[in-house]
Amino acid sequence: MIARSASPRHSMSRRRRPSTPLARMRVRKSGLSYRRELRAEMIDAYGGKCECPHCDVTIPEFLTLEHKRKDGAEHRRRVGRNAQAQLLDLKRQGWPTEDHGLLCFNCNLGAGTGECPHNGIAAIAVAIPQDTLH
Ligand SMILES: [Zn+2]
Ligand SMILES: [Zn+2]
Question: Which ligand is nearest to the CA of 105?
């Protein structure tokens, strides 16, 4: 008697590839990288530098969009809370500079309380004669 090893006959495996390459692409395209791209474009369009004359922050991660007319809340109401939607709206308008600009986080925080603290520091620095600092 010859024992034949019973090999499974139905081994012609038709493995199905995951049918969602498109869905995966969509995930990659939207989300973080796209928002970063949009932000980079915004920073480029607005000069890539903090607008405060006493500051030269150019690090994109530190820069924020400034609403010069303090209409940030209004803008949010109009286009939604979504930061990406706000950027897209500005992009559609061709990055208007008359009421928007770049400020670093520090200066933006200062501007929110009236004027940038840099102005105060600059005033103090001018008030102290240079040779008393040595
Ligand atoms: Zn600044
Ligand atoms: Zn400043």
Answer: 1
Cα 29 to the chain's mean position, in Å?
Answer: 16
DSSP 81-111: S-HHHHHHHHHHTT---SSEEEEEHHHHHHH
Q: pLDDT tens digit string along 95-111?
A: 999 889 999 998 988 77
- Ligand 2 centroid from CA 72, angstroms: 19
Q: Which two tokens stand for residue 116?
A: 């940038």
Q: Domain spans of the chain?
A: 30-128
Query: From CA 14, how far away is CA 119, in angstroms rounded?
Result: 71
Nearest-ligand number for the alpha carbon of 53 = 2
Q: How far is the CA of 105 from the centre of ligand 1 (A)?
A: 7
Average pLDDT over residues 67-85: 78
